[in-house]
Amino acid sequence: MILSSSIGKKLGMALTGLLLFGFLLAHLSGNFLLLKGDGGATFNAYSEFLVGHPLLIPVEFILLGIFLLHIVLAISVARDNRRARPVGYRVSASVGGRSVSSRTMIYSGLTTLIFVAVHLKTFKYADHAGDSLYGLVVTTFTSELYVGGYAVAMVLLGFHLWHAFQSAFQTLGLHARPRLRGLSIGLCILIAGGFAMIPLAIYLGK
Amino acid sequence: MSAGSQAEAAVSTERRASGMTFTLEIWRQRNADDPGRMVAYEATRVSPDMSFLEMLDLLNEELMRKGEEPFAFDSDCREGICGMCGLVINGVAHGPGTGTTTCQLYMRLFKNGSRIRVEPWRARAFPVVRDLVVDRSAFDRIIQAGGYTSVNTGSAPDANATLISQARAEEAMDSAACIGCGACVASCKNASAMLFVAAKVKHLGVLPQGQPERRQRGVTMLETMQEEGFGNCTNEYECEAVCPKEISTSNIAFLNREYIRNLVSLSSLRPLVTSE
Amino acid sequence: MATLNSRVPGGPLAQKWERHQFELKLVNPANKRHHSVIVVGTGLAGASAAATLAELGYNVLSFCLQDSPRRAHSIAAQGGINAAKNYQNDGDSVFRLFYDTIKGGDYRSREANVHRLAEISSNIIDQCVAQGVPFAREYGGTLTNRSFGGAQVSRTFYARGQTGQQLLLGAYSALMRQVAAGRVQLFPRSEMLEPVIVDGHMRGIVTRNLCSGEMQSWAADAVVLATGGYGNVFFLSTNAKASNVTATWRAHRRGAFFANPCFTQIHPTCIPVSGDFQSKLTLMSESLRNDGRVWVPTTAGDGRTPDQIPEAERDYYLERRYPGFGNLVPRDVASRAAKAVCDDGLGVGSAGRSVYLDFVEAIKRDGLDVIRQKYGNLFQMYEEITNEDPYKTPMRIYPAVHYTMGGLWVDYDLMSNLPGLFVLGEANFSDHGANRLGASALMQGLADGYFVIPYTLGGYLAGTRLGEVTTEHPAFAEAEAAASERIDSLLAVRGKRTVDDFHRELGLLLWDHCGMARNASGLTQALERVRQIREEFWQNVTVLGTPGEFNQVLERAGRVADFMEFAETMTRDALERDESCGGHFREEHQTGEGEARRDDDNFAHVAAWEFTGVGQDPVLHKEPLVFENVSLSQRSYK
User: Fold this and answer.
1) I want to staple C394 with a disulfide (CB 3.0 to 4.6 A). Which of C347, C358, C414, C440 is the partner?
2) Phi and psi torsions of B138, nearest 5°
């Protein structure tokens, strides 16, 4: 009922989005361990701690739920919006806050979904019995194709977050766009740049 | 007396002879069933002091003299308050001026010789009636869904019985200034009417007179907005940029807070509606 | 035809309304739902009437020609609304508001109606505040007031410069609430083309659906017209483009009397005409004259820019002619003075039809910031339209038509001489006499709609035996046929000149001869010329398209055709009223100081005209005006 209302959907998007944002921050801080320069000892220990933790499975399910909800709502919102203007303008111009980011949310979002699928396949559900996770990461990031694809995906994610982050606050009732603009851009660069930097560093460091 | 009028006519004819020229592409659509198309016209001898609508008047007059049917467009007060006019000019609702309606736009803002494309508001909820005229009765139905206080004539207390701070009255006025033109919908990539709904919800929501029905107002108006086929708000703020009354998207944030407030207080199981 | 009976109740002035309310028969609450009422127009008067009648339980059908009821031209009123609240404790009272209105109207209105208006005024403010109208407030939270239109007390309530908008949105929201409740059926983009009279009673209307072109008949127990004034007969006015005389004129053609059509008000501070393409005029608040000085060059044809003209070669003609009031003389006096200097060739601007309104001295005296604070929004609006910066160069202003005091004749119950036809707001003639005071139009519209018609219409319905009438009655078919025929004949002319072209010509003629100043020879000429223009219109107008579709030219053609007929009656009334009063200035009747001179012995009456046919002389009926509570005096502003 809530999720069929226009603001309800947006509220759902904003809350799940902020949770996913939190996940990204946690994930990124874990990933930085890859750069510690100790041959992956800390990173492997960290990953083994997570894998062995009894709460991992429930948390993963919650995360999956959040992610799916975010996607389902996004598609529903985009579908409503498309229906709301069956005949488009011959000429369209922007005079307000419309940006590449805001206009392409559904596309940058869906690209991210594909990336996540590939990413899970490569690292989480890969058969790396003979190797540590660190080893797998390093091996994977020797491929130009993979590093390049990863970087492109992160740029798109950054674009997604650029609009998403400030938009979430407006949806939650905090009209703080001018004040949030700087913070929002900063966080986008941190996350997208941070994630993209690691494979590059590994690739170049070889 | 009539000598004065003649002199007036002579002077303005002279000014027009040396006027500006534009190529106009105008949306022509005979009725709702016609798919419609852009048609090009030349507007000549345009004075920079003409309003955009006067330029269209001039063009229509010329078409009629040639025996061609004029194109339809809405306007009424021509001083920026009735909300009747509204054209998308070169992709921008109400054209290049800031904080103005189409009728308050003057030709001196346009470059002589340029091409100007004119389209109607486009939204599922605003079907085209003819050419540049659309049906905005969806806005009336949104107001019918709660954009009022339920006070019958005669039952009001003395006007000074309830004190309202100056700041509060000004805040309400900022929202109440909405003229219902629909530019917010026209400019929104999602054809959302969220700014229109939010302005009314906030206008009544900040005043003591609006409190008794505050809780259901936002819900019912929002439901009607969706039923009418408007899209969702995705916080791009195009609406605020084209709004002739410069109504802020902080109204939308207010509406969002009202929605959250309702969700929170729903859980405490208080009755949502006290019937009339 | 019946003689005019104003049906003013007996008793002392202050008790007439209360007594009348008691005497009016009541409709049994259970029976109200069996009565239907048509309300045409959704401005302040129409929307408030429709909403209130619906609240009482009547079935209401509400019509307007705009796409939404919220767009009616009441929305454009800037200044404010008067009410005798006396919140400022400065000596206001119901009687003072009554007195000011009667005097301001130059003693050409009905005492009892005006007193009732003053009595009701306070209730209007209460009602509007309860609706959420955000009136301006004091720091302490109480309502604030300003003085307006030369009143010596502060009784004007306002919401920034958008009072009309806020009041209309209040009435509109009340109307929308009744639509939601199912008590009002709403018909936007519908134009009333014919009234329908059955057995001597007004029983319905015929409308044209402006989207589909379809003719539709509607039956009811009573019809309320709240369709505004006829200022657009001049083509250029501050009225909205669609404002017209059609509804009231068509009622007039079917027997309703038109009262005092020559009473039009001209506002002195408007932005001047800048070319023959101009489609309408824009008013700027009169408050500008509080600080601006009006002047023209002393030599005709002085081509210099204002800053090049030395002080000695400027004529501050208002200050010179009216040392007492200076730039603050009343609207009609200021307007006529501007016309006089322009007629003498002293006018400025490209067409020589404007005068300067100069703020240089005020800026020097009070500083730029003070002036900006007071008039910033007006200066900005002026600059947007004219591309001239009034902080640097004087504004140019000229008078423009903006309100019409005349309208359909109504009795104390606001019912016309056609039983069952009620007329409210600017569409009737009742309260403003020969001149309306500032901030009184909003007051009258809402008083009529919220607090008068609910009582008097009930009294009519309860006291009249009305048979069952449906749209099957032959009178409806006849009216539909008449309306269709008129449309067909407009389309059949297939001439060369456009509708606007004719409208401009008519407007200019009236502006020159039946505008700010009138005289017998000009009016006689104009009368002849109006007929010629009308005849040419019906032979040479071009109206394209078909009747069965959205056709804006056809709409306008019908309205202009009615203006053509109306113009004749207006001019005739101006000729017949051989005196000067309020906005009606006959050059033959002025004091040595150039002021309006009334003739109370011969013209203290309402002139109500009866239609006898197009091009035929209408019949004049006079309703004598009796003044028992005020004494008649001559205005002087020296």
Assistant:
1) C358
2) -55, -35
| Residue C512 CB contacts under 8 Å (≥ 6 apart), including other chains | B1, B2, B5, C522, C526
**B-C contacts (CB, under 8 Å):** 252
Q: Name the DSSP class of A199.
A: H
> What are residue B28's DSSP bridge partners?
B37
How big is the A-B interface in CB pairs under 8 Å?
138
Contact state of B159 with C85 under an 8 Å Cβ cutoff: yes
Cβ-Cβ contacts under 8 Å, C386 against chain B: 49
Q: If DSSP codes are grouped into helix, strand and coil, which group holds residue A179?
A: helix
Is residue C331 part of the annotated active site? The answer reads yes
Residues of chain B with pLDDT > 70, as a percent, come to: 89
Catalytic residue of the set C331, C436, C556, C559: C331
Closest CA to C609 of C416, C423, C392: C416
Quick check: C295 pLDDT over 70? Answer: yes
Q: What is the mean pLDDT of residues C81-86?
A: 97
B229 touching A (Cβ < 8 Å): yes
Return the CATH superfamily for domain B137-266: Alpha-helical ferredoxin (1.10.1060.10)
Distance from CA of B176 to the nearest CA of A (A): 19
Q: What is the Rg, in whole angstroms, of the alpha carbon atoms belonging to chain A?
A: 19
- ipTM exceeding the 0.90 mark: yes
In chain C, what are the domain boundaries? 268-400, 474-611
Which phi and psi angles does B274 have, rounded to 5°?
-100, 115
* CATH number belonging to domain C474-611: 1.20.58.100
Q: Which fold has domain B2-128?
A: Ubiquitin-like (UB roll) (3.10.20)
Alpha helices in C7-109 (DSSP H): 16-23, 29-32, 44-56, 94-104
Q: Are B77 and C74 in contact (CB under 8 A)?
A: no
CA distance C138 to C145: 9
Chains with 3 or more CB pairs closer than 8 angstroms to A?
Answer: B
Q: What is the pLDDT of residues B10-49, one digit of tens each?
A: 444 444 456 999 999 999 999 999 999 999 999 999 999 9
Residue with tokens 């509109």: C172
Question: Rounded to the nearest 5°, which phi and psi values hold at B94?
Answer: 65, 10
| pLDDT tens per residue across span C1-26 | 447 999 999 999 999 999 999 999 99
- State whether residue B31 sits within 8 Å of chain C by CB: yes
Q: Where in chain B is the domain with CATH 3.10.20.30?
A: 2-128
Protein fold of C268-400: Flavocytochrome C3; Chain A, domain 1 (3.90.700)
Name the residue among B8, B151, B164 with its Cβ closest to that of C141. Answer: B164
Among the four given CATH numbers 1.10.1660.10, 3.40.50.300, 3.40.50.720, 1.20.1300.10, the one describing domain A2-83+100-205: 1.20.1300.10
Report the distance separating Cα A21 and Cα A12, nearest Å. 14
pLDDT of residue C287: 80
